[in-house]
Amino acid sequence: MPTVDIDPDELRDLTGHDEKSDDDLIDDLFGLGLEFEGRTEDGEFELEFAPDRLDRLSVEGVARSMRYQYGDSRGVHVPSPNSPEWTIEVAESVPDERPYVTGAVVRDVDLDEEALESLIQLQEKLHATMGRKRAKGAIGIHDLTMLKGTAATEGNPTIQYVGVEPDEDRFVPLDSDQEMTPADVLEDHQTGQTYADLVSEYERYPAIYDSIGLFSFPPVINGRRTEVSTDSRDLFVEMTGTDQWTIDKMLNIVCYALSARGATLEEVRVDYPDREVVRPDLSMKTKTVAHDRIETILGIGLDPDEVIDLAERSGLEAEKAESEDGNLVYEVTIPPYRVDVLHPLDVIDDLGRAYGFNELEPRYPDIGTVGGRHERSRLERSVREQLVGHGFEDMLNFHMISEEENYERLDVSPDGDVYGAGEAATIKEPYSEDFTMLRTWVMPSLLMVLERNTHRSYPQNLAEIGFAAEVDESENTGVAESRRVGAVLAHHEAGYEDAKARLQALARNFDVALETPPTDHPTFISGRTAAVVIDGEEVGVIGEVHPKVLVEHDLEVPVSAFEFDLGALR
């Protein structure tokens, strides 16, 4: 778990509670979910925290949460940044691997030694967590007075985010006294050697210029010319990365920390070749949370006014509303620095902490229960036994797959309307090209098994009850998950009738009405393909696999197959 070092005296100062002893602070921190792990050599608290609450990576963020806990602050606070005076111009030459940039100007910040150490710690902790060791997002903080922007047509001083050749230009990096090219930095500078693998394969390296010259080589190192010190009062914060949302949220966390030091925020205009944005993005989102769900999860009865009070003491805001079915719900506003609130349960967790989990009285449930298999698990087991009884070998395949295997090799388009199509839930930074997304159906996995077993004798009758998913904005998570029943029959006389006979037997065993009206599907042969309709609802497809799909998988025998949603057998 990540840890953060906090000076208890500074925490008392920022919360305004000088009367709190160290033991009191430790107890209060535990109530927030921050566990005391000991003290550093300098006497600071070493705190372990949940990695989702990245806004608590600095003493400013921890103090903000404690002020809410003490009732000194309430509701959502959003700083009001001044209009932009500076512009970041993004050139066409920026490497495709790191195309995004964001930024803000911070004025009149009071940086004593403690504040500067806190800012540096926040920067490095964000790099290690949300920034994925600078691979996804990297932060550069500069002394604004040392920058000289190029004059722009609208009068705003402008800096450029560009791509440069490895040996194209020179600058003096931090912790160095000599000019170096970006290539030299990666080879000879200690920090450059540490982060060289992030950019060494790029044809052009990311670089940020003002009118004087190169002053930042993200995500590796800043230039010495703009180094921040305790004498710095105005700062320029820039962040580059592979994802705009990530660096924008990292920027919000830094801006809130500096705002807590009395700084004034100022927007920065970012000019991409095809669009313009203004940052920081301090817009807020809302979550709808049902009153009865709050009471069910927490196990207590609450008045609506109590829920609103708990939300405000959590740094949120809640308004009463009515759902479509007439039940009481709350529209909860989430502040810009919170990156962890993805689901109504995250809001309920905040409400529970504001109430005090130690205040909840344990009680026995009203009814006794005995552990057992979940209904879905029983269904899966029963279907699996039936499939084995019909001559199938049970498979367990990976849920992860590649776009090529899931779509292209089965002649299916992601935006098609056939079974197995649909937008996939993809991994933004996959470790392997073979596993870049969650599969949208199980058929690709079964055909991959057949492809790898061409050296074995036939028949090969394989079946799998497995997980599939596709993007669905109507779901809370944005992804619709399902369990599928898939089966393939591979032998020299495999045909549509073989697959249908086994599907009919399965339907009879579960007492459901099966229909197989003709349909078209690019994975299967036209005229030898049907939809699987169970109890009047179309839930799958059955047919003979198309020859071009067989050739794609190096299969020299016919294959018939079917796949449908497991829930249709309930």
Summarize the structure.
The protein is an alpha+beta fold. The protein has 15 helices and 26 strands.
Model description:
The protein has 570 residues and is α+β, with helices and mostly antiparallel strands. The protein has four domains: 3-70, Phenylalanyl-tRNA Synthetase, Chain B, domain 1; 82-279, Phenylalanyl-trna Synthetase, Chain B, domain 3 (Phenylalanyl-tRNA Synthetase, Chain B, domain 3); 285-359, Phenylalanyl-tRNA Synthetase, Chain B, domain 1 (2-Layer Sandwich), CATH 3.30.56; 375-569, BirA Bifunctional Protein, domain 2, CATH 3.30.930.10. It is built from 15 helices and 26 strands. Strands 4, 5, 6, 7, 8, 9, 10, 11, 12, 13 and 14 form an eleven-stranded mixed sheet that branches. The protein has a seven-stranded mixed sheet with strand order 18-21-22-26-25-24-23. Strands 1-3-2 form a three-stranded antiparallel sheet. β9 (205-209) and β10 (214-217) form a beta hairpin. The radius of gyration is 29 Å and the shape is globular. The mean pLDDT is 93.
